[in-house]
Amino acid sequence: xxxxxxxxxxxxxxxxxxxxxxxxxxxxxxxxxxxxxxxxxxxxxxxxxxxxxxxxxxxxxxxxxxxxxxxxxxxxxxxxxxxxxxxxxxxxxxxxxxxxxxxxxxxxxxxxxxxxxx
Length: 118
What we know:
It contains four helices and no strands.
């Protein structure tokens, strides 16, 4: 039962890593592609902060995928000390990645509303 629970948890982690990678990369590509329209719409600093946070989220998601790979390899080779070192890194990277993604989106929305109200 514990092995099945661990596999379900790993499937969920794999899914969230993939979602963050796709959403953050898509946001960066869309923001750069619509640069001439977004820059005056939300301003200089919020635009740069939004793009920076999305790139940070993407980098952390890639690191989480790498940490997951290293953990899985260590687990297969029965190197428990190494595996136990990388599992928390993976989970912290996922948390930080989701936080950066959501903060970037909040910055974008907040800047748009402030610009619209003022």
